[in-house]
């Protein structure tokens, strides 16, 4: 299986407390996912492999002979091969059970891949379903499994495929494989097919789904879910009263186009007769695995299957149970005709049968998992999901099977959330399987989170501890996925340590490759980062040292306006600098007041400074600590909007201290509003330049403000600017005393004259931000 490209790199994943991805859905009832099978207990109490097949249904030899003739027509097999089967059937003219007929065929044809054996098996399977239908008997689960086994083997047999076992596309969207076709006078006597709706969204020609059949029809569901709609159809006089028009149907196999049914069709055509019809929905019935339903001759119906689901049925047309010569199709009243090309675009019966069989086994696995989970039999449930996941990887790894992959992920998540794992080996096995399921579904970061999950050990360490070829293959998979091989367990040993201790040279080679790849990625990333930082420093130096710094020297009153204008102009003039640094943005004080909370960068309140157009001429930069108690929060403030209220209090006191500054002229710089929170790189790179364009910095100081790295680096910047040029102002706004609502109790005071900052010891919410802080520290040294 090819891995998603995102797995070629190593990613640090943020986890919730229980080790699941942060966005993992909360635990719901197990039965919600993919529905609940009506025979769950029966399905899980006895596996398909061990279930004894039996059927008391008697099959008449004359029916078998008729079916063999129909197989000859449908599959285009040779008369010689058919005669071998007919000769065996003709030996005994008595009726006997399907099981006895099958035993006779087994003994009569020893070569399992020979066409006569496949023809004989198909004849028994089809005759059994015809007999069941004619006697109005329900086919048991074991009988359907037996029939499908014979049909599937025939569809996957290469000799049958070469003989002419074909696939065609129906106007209703499904793919049909005709297995038996008996035509009398151009009319269907018996037609037995496999119908498969693929999860590819193709569901037939729009508007032509309501149709009728000349003969009686019966369907047995092999896999998936489908819904059958029955309609009450009546002729109407006018177009306005009509929902549809009546269409006449004709087929062609390459020669004449007429109303005589053709087993092997090139295309079919429906033509508007001009008769207006009204179709009202009558009965609606959903059908799942091992269920059956029938359609009377001439009755109008349609079948609906979800576009992302696979649905497969055995389908019988039987003229002996009812036949009408006139079986029209309904279509759009305004259209004239529709042509359905029957070509299946290269899809083979072998591929279809393999996929249907895989989905059937997948359904069995999920039913077993649900059965065991409801009984708290966690290991058995996990084992069933492991098999389902293997099917997704090996046999169902197709472009349109996401629904099935996601169902396994959902079930695994439920087991992980509902069962407290105590055994470290269980943890490793479950996390590894969950990671593979996520990776197959393209959830790269969540997959890595499972592969790197640490609960005393990691999958890489555990698989290295026990030498085996299976574990080496798992190590190769983890290597390709980019898992972390550097972690050590509670004993201080890494995956490499255990491989060497065990003299497992093959595992050692795999792990060394993983470590080398990780180190090379790290080195490549480090070099890329250093190149980026060097280019940023070059741009920074050219902007600040050569353009902005000369304007700040001397401390003129108008220098800040000149600085802002010059910065805006240089970004417009130089595309490289425009790509490297964010524009100077701000929020109007009046709009901040009205908003009622910190606006996010995508709220539309932040605007770029435009020389000569922006009315604001005094800008305040706010440095503050994120106080949201949720460590994964995407917003800086708490539910009470504490920091937002402090900002407003600080501005109110600032205006009291500086009465000459007009409130409507104030612009406010707040990181959450002015730096793009989805793509913050350019805003962070420009932070010293942005701060340098603000007239004053106000720090919202509390007992932890100076412990935070981001706050400290902003303090370093304003301290450097104030000391070097004497133009900028810096204030501290202290946290009000508990219970105080009086602004006077929260004085606005000048920032300290001397500040010593050691950023390496300061705290960060995300430690991966440390290189950004240290880079900004270096940039700050260019401000003086």
Brief digest:
This protein has 784 residues and is α+β, with helices and mostly antiparallel strands. Helices cover 42% and strands 17% of the residues.
The number of E-state strands comes to: 21
Largest sheet: 7 strands, mixed
Across the major sheet, the strand order is 16-15-18-17-19-20-21
Approximately how much helix is present in the residues? 40-55%
Average pLDDT taken over every residue:
86
Uncertain residue ranges: 1-51
Q: Structural class, judged by helices and strands?
A: alpha+beta
Give the helix tally. Answer: 25
Number of domains: 4
What is the rounded distance between the termini? 56 Å
Radius of gyration of CA atoms, rounded to a whole number: 37 Å
Shape: elongated
Strand content of the residues, in percent?
15-25%
Protein name: Heterokaryon incompatibility domain-containing protein
Describe this structure in words.
This protein has four domains: 5-30 and 379-519, Serine Threonine Protein Phosphatase 5, Tetratricopeptide repeat; 58-139, no CATH class; 168-347, Jelly Rolls (Sandwich), CATH 2.60.120; 582-783, no CATH class. Helix 8 packs antiparallel against helix 9 (378-394), helix 9 packs antiparallel against helix 10 and helix 9 (378-394) runs parallel beside helix 11. The chain is an alpha+beta fold. 42% of the residues lie in helices and 17% in strands.
Write the layout of secondary structure elements.
Layout: H1 40-45, E1 58-59, H2 61-75, H3 79-90, E2 96-97, H4 98-108, H5 115-134, H6 141-156, H7 158-163, E3 168-169, E4 175-184, E5 187-197, E6 215-223, E7 226-235, E8 244-252, E9 267-287, E10 292-295, E11 301-304, E12 311-323, E13 329-331, E14 337-341, H8 349-374, H9 378-394, H10 402-418, H11 424-440, H12 444-451, H13 459-465, H14 469-481, H15 495-501, H16 505-552, H17 559-573, H18 575-580, E15 585-588, H19 589-595, E16 607-608, E17 618-623, H20 642-657, E18 666-669, H21 671-674, H22 681-685, H23 687-692, E19 696-701, H24 709-725, E20 729-734, E21 748-750, H25 770-780
Parallel strand pairs: 17-18, 17-19, 19-20
Antiparallel strand pairs: 1-2, 3-4, 4-5, 5-12, 6-10, 6-12, 7-9, 7-11, 8-9, 8-13, 9-14, 15-16, 15-18, 20-21
Protein name: Heterokaryon incompatibility domain-containing protein
